[in-house]
Inverse folding.
């Protein structure tokens, strides 16, 4: 049953814009299905004349007609609405309400303005005798517009993806079954129209419950007219022909690298790459329409794929209106999709998205790169594909809003592609990478080849042009000597000395000498390799812990550095200060390390000017290296490819690479191609084929043992986090499952403005995360990236808190550069963290973890277990302490006490009196650092405590920095203090400044004056109220303090 609605016109609408007009359009909704008309600009009596049709599933549904006013930059305004139950139309004469004016009503009855205007509608209900007619969109003037919504009005069915592995007989059986089901259903529907109304469309859901196969998924549903079906078959064949044409024109170029914005999706699926490509980008694929329905996208229009630039590029244009969000309205978007590569196995599509209607939309484009490559080998023998989606912002013009635009786009894309991944996983089975590559012994055993004899290795080694040519010349000269007669002595010759008699003879002798020298060099190398046995290949790892195993398979397109057009490459692996050296492949640009004859270096090529020996690899295995077990999982491994120049010459680098174990899962490293960096490597697009395995050989108490060791260095107990907390931490930063959280701290990240968030510390990374009004800031870097950690003295801008400044090594941590405050001339990033609730614990933990990762094992053994407190804070030599001169100070309290000055100063000693006073004034969890000499006659300490509930209902926390110094005449003391409040309203708007001036007045008496000031960090209309509340609280607190001190030294008072 189909409900047809014709939106004719409207009159006397409300003016919603300042110009006295509106930009109205009509939005219609029935159940889950939605449509909208075009927008009529600047009109209160618009005319549309558009017709729509809905599939009725339940007579209890209501048709909701809403008139909206389009707003370019904000959410659209509501004008009025109308609700028409479908049952009214069903009960009406001829199942039609006719063409009638309907009054628009406000959203709620309490609205003051109830005059919203009227709208002219034609509403009718039609019943058909076949399911095909029922599913057809309305075939009227607007049929083309309705056709793009036809699939969206269908309920998303559950799908099963069987790939291309089904046999023809299986496919035929499924098609026959499908035909029977449809025929049976159509027959049933004719006789049971009433059941459609009373069972809420059971028949429709019955057909949707059947899973779709791969061939069905790439086609539209069968319930459509013959003409449309013919057009789709033609379109599908056109896409297949285009892919075939792209494959024939492919010249074997490299796969485009991921875009700089980051990875949105990296997942492998049990499907062949061509099938996954068709599923995502074929015009006939149902996946695109299902995704649009899931995300609320409307008016989806997919242009045809066309060849441009003389057939060099394949391109199409897609337009749609994205769903509205909490912050933005529905926006029109244009996508330009271009195939960068399609060779039948690898597909790369670059999508450029423009949203001109958004603010600053003309200044940027969002670019997405879809890369489909063959996935890992599956035990079942099925084909798999790996899909990587990366993104970046392409700014066409310079704008000050660049950071905000990037942040908003990053969050929006993340949410959108989470839905994309969920829907794709419902249609195509994801590959479980955890089970792949886990059996290391089985994988490495598959790399074994038959070993070769020494004679065969010698023949392969000496079978080259130089040796053959020298042997032939030698035989020729020998034959000449045997046939020639002895020459007479002439010139400077004498018996036993025969000199060349012409320039030609001199030239020939020179060639012979050079050739013999080269051959002797080959022989010397070979004999040297035969004498020196032993290599890094095959050496077993020692100890228990994290075991790293690397299998070197092959290399491609290595740079040539000599005139022969080849090189003599070998690879040096470095991890945690340990090195492993591969064999040398002579005269190879595409070396194979899995069984070819080769030399294996013993010493590191970095150690130049020292003799190095090489041995022959006659084992016949792939190059397999094991690193000694490590206590903590490694963060990265460096590899460098060198060209061998001889045992005494410095090696030439052919390229280098870095493997990051934190950003790459272990399953992905089980079989990976590594692109090399460097001028030579990038020019030749050099790559290495590796298989890397990392596993822990110890028991299940590894994390607990590591935390116990770190507790000794930090000096504070570290609690073991729950699996749920560790899982959330791993998901937040995209970390591998072996990473575990050690500690986290609330702090501020200082950039242009302080940003409050949490600092997370693990065994391998230090990360920061903040979420401010939906704008998320997230980054992390490795402990090995850190060059220096410094503590900067508190300043006014740091809200009285010391600052931890972390400086990274040059060129490191560039993925986290958006969180850095500065970048120096040498390219080193500097991160500023401040306002820690417990600064000393945070500083000690960061320092201990950094030392544990950056020091070599020998240096770690020299570190004492118990580390002293953090070093004294550093302040600038010029200027006053913490900028107190910039704050207006007024006298808050003064008193004369009948006790000596030194007795009163015990209040700041950290002893019994100090703790007793803080307890009396309602300070809980009081902690402090000892007084430390900062510079001449200046001592400094940090204190921290929490307010009791009777002092502050919010039970906030206080971090304070105190400085103590003598008066100018050294006959008294000045104690200055800056207090920062956390967890109380407006606590981040100000800092409290106190100054205690203690002077002796008479014998065994002292005079105390307390001065007070507030440094406002932000402006607020409540300044007077806040200051009044603080003054009252401080005065009461000081009275209690002075009373307790006096009672302590004067008994009975």
């Amino acid at each position: 049953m189909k409900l047809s609605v014709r939106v004719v016109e409207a009159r006397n609408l409300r003016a919603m814009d300042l110009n006295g007009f509106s930009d109205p359009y009509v939005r219609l909704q029935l159940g889950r299905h939605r449509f909208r008309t075009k927008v009529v600009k600047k009109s209160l009596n618009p005319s549309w004349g558009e017709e729509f049709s809905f599939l009725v599933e339940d007579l209890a549904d209501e048709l909701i007609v809403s008139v909206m006013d389009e707003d370019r930059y904000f959410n659209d305004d509501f004008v009025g609405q109308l609700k028409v139950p479908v049952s009214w139309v069903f009960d009406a004469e001829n199942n039609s309400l006719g063409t009638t004016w309907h009054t628009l009503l406000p959203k709620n009855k309490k609205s003051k303005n109830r005059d919203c205007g009227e709208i002219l509608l034609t509403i009718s209900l039609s019943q058909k005798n076949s399911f095909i007619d029922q599913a057809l969109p309305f075939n009227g003037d607007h049929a083309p517009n309705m056709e793009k919504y036809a699939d969206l009005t269908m309920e998303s069915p559950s799908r099963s993806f069987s790939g291309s592995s089904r046999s023809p007989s299986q496919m035929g059986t499924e098609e026959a079954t499908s035909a029977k089901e449809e025929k049976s259903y159509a027959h049933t529907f004719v006789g049971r129209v009433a059941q459609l109304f009373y069972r809420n469309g059971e028949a429709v859901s019955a057909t949707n419950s059947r899973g779709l196969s791969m061939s069905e998924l790439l086609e539209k549903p069968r319930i459509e007219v013959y003409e449309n079906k013919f057009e789709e078959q033609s379109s599908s064949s056109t896409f297949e022909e285009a892919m075939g044409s792209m494959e024939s024109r492919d010249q074997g170029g490299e796969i485009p690298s991921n875009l700089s914005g980051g990875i949105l999706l990296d997942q492998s699926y049990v499907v062949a790459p061509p099938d996954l490509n068709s599923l995502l980008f074929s015009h006939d694929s149902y996946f695109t329409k299902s995704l649009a329905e899931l995300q609320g996208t409307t008016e989806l229009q997919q242009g045809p794929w066309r060849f441009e630039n003389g057939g060099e590029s394949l391109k199409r244009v897609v337009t749609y209106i994205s769903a509205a969000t909490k912050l933005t309205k529905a926006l029109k978007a244009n996508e330009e999709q271009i195939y960068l590569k399609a060779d039948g196995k690898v597909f790369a599509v670059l999508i450029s998205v423009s949203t001109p209607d958004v603010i600053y939309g003309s200044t940027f484009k969002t670019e997405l790169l879809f890369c489909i490559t063959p996935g890992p080998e599956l035990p079942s023998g099925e084909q798999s594909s790996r899909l990587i989606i990366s993104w970046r912002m392409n700014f066409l013009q310079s704008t000050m809003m660049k950071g905000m635009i990037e942040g908003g786009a990053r969050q929006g894309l993340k949410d959108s592609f989470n839905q994309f991944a969920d829907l794709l996983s419902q249609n195509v089975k994801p590959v479980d990478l955890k089970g792949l590559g886990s059996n290391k012994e089985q994988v490495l055993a598959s790399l074994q080849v038959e070993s070769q004899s020494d004679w065969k290795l010698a023949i392969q080694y000496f079978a080259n042009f130089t040796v053959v040519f020298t042997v032939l010349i030698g035989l020729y000269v020998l034959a000449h000597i045997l046939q020639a007669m002895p020459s007479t002595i002439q010139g400077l010759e004498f018996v036993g000395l025969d000199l060349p008699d012409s320039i030609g003879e001199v030239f020939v002798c020179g060639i012979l000498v050079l050739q013999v020298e080269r051959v002797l060099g080959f022989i010397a190398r070979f004999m040297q390799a035969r004498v020196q046995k032993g290599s890094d290949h095959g050496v077993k790892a020692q100890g228990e812990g994290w075991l790293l195993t690397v299998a070197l398979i092959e290399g491609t397109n290595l740079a040539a550095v000599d005139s022969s057009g080849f090189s003599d490459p070998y690879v040096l692996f470095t991890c945690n200060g340990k090195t492993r050296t591969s064999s040398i492949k002579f005269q190879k640009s595409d070396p194979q390390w899995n069984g070819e004859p080769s030399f294996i270096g013993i010493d590191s090529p970095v150690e130049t000017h020292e003799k190095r020996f090489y041995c022959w690899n006659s084992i016949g295995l792939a190059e397999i290296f094991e690193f000694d077990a490590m206590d903590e999982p490694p963060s990265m491994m460096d590899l460098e490819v060198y060209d061998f120049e001889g045992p005494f010459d410095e090696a030439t680098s052919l390229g280098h690479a870095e493997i990051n174990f934190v950003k790459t899962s272990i399953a992905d490293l089980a079989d990976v191609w590594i692109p090399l960096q460097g001028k030579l490597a990038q020019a030749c697009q050099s790559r290495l084929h590796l298989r890397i395995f990392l596993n822990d050989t110890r028991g299940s108490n590894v994390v607990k043992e590591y935390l116990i060791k770190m507790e000794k260095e930090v000096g504070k107990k570290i609690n073991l986090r729950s699996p749920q907390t560790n899982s959330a931490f791993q998901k937040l930063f995209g970390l591998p499952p072996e990473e575990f959280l050690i500690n986290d701290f609330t702090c501020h990240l200082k950039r242009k403005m302080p940003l409050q968030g949490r600092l997370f510390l693990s065994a391998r990374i230090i990360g920061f995360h903040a979420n401010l009004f939906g704008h998320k800031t997230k980054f992390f870097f490795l402990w090995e990236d850190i060059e220096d950690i410094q503590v900067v003295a508190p300043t006014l801008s740091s809200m009285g808190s010391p600052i931890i400044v972390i400086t990274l090594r040059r060129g490191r941590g560039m993925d986290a550069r958006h969180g850095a405050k500065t970048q120096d001339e040498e390219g080193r990033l500097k991160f500023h963290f401040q306002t820690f609730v417990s600064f000393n614990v945070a500083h000690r933990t960061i320092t201990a973890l950094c030392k544990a990762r950056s020091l070599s094992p020998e240096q770690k053994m020299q570190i004492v277990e118990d580390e002293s407190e953090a070093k004294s804070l550093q302040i600038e030599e010029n200027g006053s302490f913490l900028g107190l001169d910039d704050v207006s100070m007024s006298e808050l309290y003064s008193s004369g006490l009948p006790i000596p000055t030194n007795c009163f100063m015990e209040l700041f000693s950290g002893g019994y009196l100090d703790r007793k006073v803080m307890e009396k004034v309602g300070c809980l969890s009081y902690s402090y650092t000892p007084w430390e000499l900062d510079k001449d006659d200046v001592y400094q300490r940090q204190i921290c405590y929490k307010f009791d509930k009777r002092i502050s209902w919010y039970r906030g926390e206080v971090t304070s920095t105190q400085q103590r110094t003598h008066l100018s005449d050294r006959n008294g003391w000045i104690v200055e203090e800056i207090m920062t409040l956390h967890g109380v309203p407006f606590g981040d708007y100000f800092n409290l400044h106190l100054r205690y001036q203690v002077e002796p007045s008479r014998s065994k008496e002292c005079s105390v004056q307390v001065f007070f000031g507030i440094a406002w960090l932000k402006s607020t209309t409540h300044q007077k109220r806040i200051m009044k509340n603080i003054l009252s609280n401080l005065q009461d607190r000081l009275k209690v303090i002075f009373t307790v001190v006096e009672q302590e030294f004067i008994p009975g008072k």
Remarks:
- Residues 239-431 form a domain with the Alpha-D-Glucose-1,6-Bisphosphate; Chain A, domain 4 fold (CATH 3.30.530.20).
- Confidence is low (pLDDT under 50) at residues 128-237, 531-535, 595-621, 856-885.
- The radius of gyration is 40 Å.
